[in-house]
Amino acid sequence: MAKNRKKKVVVGAAGLLLVLAGLYISSLYNYLLFHMLAEMFAVVTACSIFVVTWNARKFFKEKQFFPFIGIAYLFVGILDLVHAMTYKGVNIINTSYA
User: Fold this and answer.
1) Distance (Å, rounded) from C-alpha 96 to C-alpha 76?
2) Rg of the chain in Å (alpha carbons)
3) Which of the residues 28, 75, 76, 77 has the least number of beta carbons within 10 Å of its own beta carbon?
4) What percent of the chain has pLDDT over 90?
5) Which helix (H) or strand (E) holds 63?
6) Of 57, 78, 75, 55, which is closest to residue 66 (Cα–Cα)?
7) Are 26 and 34 in contact (CB under 8 A)?
8) pLDDT digits (tens, 9 = 90+) for 51-87
9) The pLDDT of residue 46 is above 90
10) What predicted TM-score, i.e. pTM, was given to this entire model?
11) Contact criterion met (CB below 8 Å) for 67 and 54
């Protein structure tokens, strides 16, 4: 059983190293691609926090702090997504008014 756990740790570490190497290579290839990947990771993380806290809200009947934080993270994710789409050079939403 310990051998199986060690294998999972090694595979997870190798996967993490591959992702980090891919991000580094994408930053050398195209900074906008790297920036969008980093921002999308932050958006997915924020939305995941919202989903977990929203589905666990029945366990927090007395304290409404955790659902509040989850809803706040949803709005943080939305703002981060808008930031990623309006970043200079990304032509998804045109922000030049001149």
Assistant:
1) 24
2) 19
3) 28
4) 32
5) none
6) 57
7) yes
8) 999 999 888 777 788 889 999 999 999 999 988 888 7
9) yes
10) 0.74
11) yes
Instruction: Name residue, tokens 């997870």.
Output: 12
CA 13 vs. chain centroid, Å, equals 19
For 46, counting Cβ atoms within 10 Å of its Cβ (0-12 exposed, 13-18 middle, 19+ buried), the class is buried
- The residue with greater pLDDT, 26 or 44, is 44
Please state, in angstroms and rounded to a whole number, the distance separating the CA atoms of residues 50 and 63: 16
Residue found by looking up tokens 């969008």 in the block: 36
Contact residues for 34 (Cβ-Cβ < 8 A; gap 6+): 23, 26, 27
* 3-state DSSP of 13-53: HHHHHHHHHHHHHHHHHCHHHHHHHHHHHHHHHHHHHHHHH
